[in-house]
Amino acid sequence: MSSVPLCKDSVTIKSSLIDPDGGSLVDLVVPESKRELKASEAELLPKVKLAKIDLEWVHVISEGWASPLKGFMREDEYLQSLHFNSLRVKDGSVVNMSLPIVLAIDDEDKERIGVSTDVALVGPDGDLVLIIGKSESVAELFQEYKEGNDADAS
């Protein structure tokens, strides 16, 4: 008699990886099947051009390296990060976040955005990168960050 069937029911296999901050990994990439629709929606939105460094932060956020952030920090997240070096997430737990990740805009961008609830962020080359909204959970990465897209380590 084999002991494998008996062990199979009583063994729990766990990953050696730790859970991401906030409990679930953030993935903001829009599925290929929805990209055309999102691109047409973005055509109607006010646009803000990202600097190269902002594009790098989009990469960090979109791949979950800044979990639980789902976009650039809002004012309350910024203040928590600045004053407490951490963020309090919805379940009440605290996540280390000592570096504020924000998108600075100028008066011209602010005027262009006006009362719009959604904004299209475009890269330095003018290509659509991200759609963000005033709702905390609305941030959709339009295209995956590609290695060698003039990302510079200097």
TrEMBL record:
| Gene3D superfamilies cross-referenced by the UniProt entry | Sulfate adenylyltransferase
* Pathway(s) per entry: Sulfur metabolism
Q: What is the name listed in the Swiss-Prot or TrEMBL entry for this protein? A: ATP-sulfurylase PUA-like domain-containing protein
Q: Which domain of life is it from?
A: Eukaryota
SUPFAM superfamilies in the record = PUA domain-like
Q: Which residues cross the membrane?
A: none
A single GO BP annotation from the record? Answer: sulfate assimilation
Under the heading Pfam families, the entry gives: PUA_2 (PF14306)
Under Gene Ontology molecular function, one entry of this record is: ATP binding
Q: Which UniProt keywords apply?
A: ATP-binding, Nucleotide-binding, Transferase
Q: Which residues form the ATP-sulfurylase PUA-like domain?
A: 18-135
Matching InterPro entries, A to Z?
Answer: ATP-Sase_PUA-like_dom (IPR025980), PUA-like_sf (IPR015947)
